[in-house]
TrEMBL record:
InterPro entries: G_CP_dom (IPR030378), GTP-bd (IPR006073), GTP-bd_ortho_bundle_sf (IPR023179), GTP-bd_ribosome_bgen (IPR019991), GTPase_MTG1 (IPR016478), P-loop_NTPase (IPR027417)
Domain CP-type G: start-end pairs: 14-174
Listed name of the protein: Ribosome biogenesis GTPase A
Coiled-coil positions: none
Keywords for this protein: Cytoplasm, GTP-binding, Nucleotide-binding
Biological processes per GO annotation: translation
Entries under PANTHER family matching the protein: MITOCHONDRIAL RIBOSOME-ASSOCIATED GTPASE 1
MF-aspect GO terms: GTP binding; GTPase activity
Free-text function comment from the UniProt entry: Required for a late step of 50S ribosomal subunit assembly. Has GTPase activity.
Family: Belongs to the TRAFAC class YlqF/YawG GTPase family. MTG1 subfamily.
Subcellular location: Cytoplasm
Listed GO CC annotations: cytoplasm
């Protein structure tokens, strides 16, 4: 895939916003996409956040492979970072996060002066930051949407227990060392579709799926067999779904959009595109 311009002007502002507000917060909640736990961790956030206490939220757990969710949580915990699986649509995981926040709150302020904890939520575009905030406040405080770039400016919100939360726009970084990172972010909707070549993206996605979840792909599109190449697979999917243009030409564009949509909404199945390193089991992390 050709290089893509994923660094619009507001990203620079967001970076400054995070840096400037960091001083004021006691805890950083880093929201990542459970389907791509490596690619959705922004190295800039790491650099900015430094030693600040942090909780990692593996969000969209419902869309990711349950086994991998467990392994990734254990992996982060083994590295000394509190990590929690979350589903902001159902609310699963919110209670556990509240527990972690209360524990942290006890360490804030002096014995004489107890003040409510201040937190900042950071993460790549579209990973669910605003959805998590709405879960925590219990109402629609922050605007959400199924595309990147919904939150534009910063927004402070107060929880019912008095804690204060800062929502931030999604932040990407200027250069992807590994092109796979850009692809993964694009599959998951963190990069605006308008600047991507949908057919190219879907072909890369099909290639990854053929390697990682071939059976799932075969079953979803009721294919006897996958193609030898991703292009062949796409053609088989298009034929099954009737994505044919006049003159019996294959409608690649429509097929590509369908495959990506069905991945993003979880209709293909629960998919994690990055495997947890090592052989850490949840027991090791306890
Ligand atoms: N399936 C599923 N969808 C989720 C979950 N959390 C959020 N979403 C959806 O993901 C999309 C993006 O959510 P937002 O909360 O707007 O994401 P954001 O990180 O604030 O995005 P920006 O403000 O654009 O950076 C929305 O369509 C949400 O409904 C989850 O746990 N599971
Ligand atoms: Mg948002």
């Amino acid at each position: 895939m050709n290089s893509i311009n994923w660094y619009p002007g507001h990203m620079k502002k967001t970076r400054e916003l995070i840096r400037d507000n960091l001083k004021m917060v006691d805890l950083v909640i880093e929201v990542i996409d459970a389907r791509i736990p490596v690619s959705s961790r922004n190295p800039i956030i790491d650099e900015l956040v430094g030693e600040k206490p942090r909780v990692i939220i593996l969000n969209k757990k419902d869309l990711a492979d349950p086994e991998e969710n467990r392994k990734w949580t254990a992996f982060f915990r083994a590295g000394g970072i509190r990590a929690l699986e979350m589903n902001c649509v159902s609310g699963e995981g919110v209670k556990a996060l509240y527990g972690a926040l209360s524990t942290r709150q006890e360490k804030i302020g002096s014995a004489r002066y107890k003040r409510p904890m201040r937190m900042m939520i950071v993460g790549v575009p579209n990973c669910g930051k605003s959805s998590l905030i709405n879960r925590l406040t219990g109402k629609k405080s922050a605007r959400t949407g199924d595309r990147p770039g919904v939150t534009k400016g910063k927004q402070w919100l107060t929880l019912s227990n008095g804690m204060q939360l800062l929502d931030t726009p999604g932040i990407l970084w200027p250069k992807f060392e590994d092109p796979r990172v850009g692809l993964n972010l694009a599959y998951c909707g963190s990069i605006r579709d308008e600047i991507l070549d949908t057919a190219d993206l879907a072909l890369s996605f099909l290639e990854d799926m053929q390697n990682r979840y071939p059976e799932m792909l075969r079953e979803r599109y009721r294919l006897e067999e996958l193609g030898e190449t991703p292009l062949e697979t796409m053609e088989r999917i298009a034929k099954k779904r009737g994505f044919i243009l006049p003159g019996r030409r294959i409608d690649y564009e429509r097929c590509a959009r369908t495959v990506l949509d069905e991945f993003r909404s979880g209709r293909i199945g629960r998919i994690t595109l990055e495997t947890a390193p090592g052989s850490i089991t949840p027991e090791d992390a306890l």
